[in-house]
């Protein structure tokens, strides 16, 4: 696992795009602060960049670095969640501008899965995490369901966890608005 993480980080430091296992489905990832790398992910997915993508971080402390003002309820949600939870925050910062939604918000998930958590920790920056599919096609739950087109389009495919056959679910998504209002986007 350590060698896979080292290789994936090396590719992302150079502006490359990786295919990697996350705490939910397999993801296409890159340095979330690199505008050119983010642009490549949109191109690989054939997706308009007006549709924002989420990012993974390895600890709640990192959320503060990427969000101007984290609503207090976010800390409770992060701490209490028992399954992967993506929270959409207003006032994103320190990220590639083309990664953000038109309203300046960003979805961030604190991962607790061993590989993606260590990857985020070693990379020391947020990592884009978007499902490994062409936009509009079904999200592959396991590595064997990822199209050859996606596998060929990225710069590095992580070896770790390719054999898994379980069907993980995408994360729940909650949007936190100003004043603490909570809107459930996906349960």
From TrEMBL:
It is an enzyme of class 2 (transferase). One of its GO terms (molecular function) is L-threonylcarbamoyladenylate synthase. It catalyses: L-threonine + hydrogencarbonate + ATP = L-threonylcarbamoyladenylate + diphosphate + H2O. Keywords: ATP-binding, Cytoplasm, Nucleotide-binding, Nucleotidyltransferase, Transferase, tRNA processing. Its EC number is 2.7.7.87. It is found in: Cytoplasm. SUPFAM superfamilies: YrdC/RibB (SSF55821). The keyword Hydrolase does not apply. It comes from the Bacteria. It holds the Pfam family Sua5_yciO_yrdC. Its main location: cytoplasm. Residues 2-187 form the YrdC-like domain. PANTHER family: SUA5, THREONYLCARBAMOYL-AMP SYNTHASE. Belongs to the SUA5 family. This is L-threonylcarbamoyladenylate synthase. It comes from Bacteroides gallinaceum. The lineage of its organism: Bacteria, Pseudomonadati, Bacteroidota, Bacteroidia, Bacteroidales.
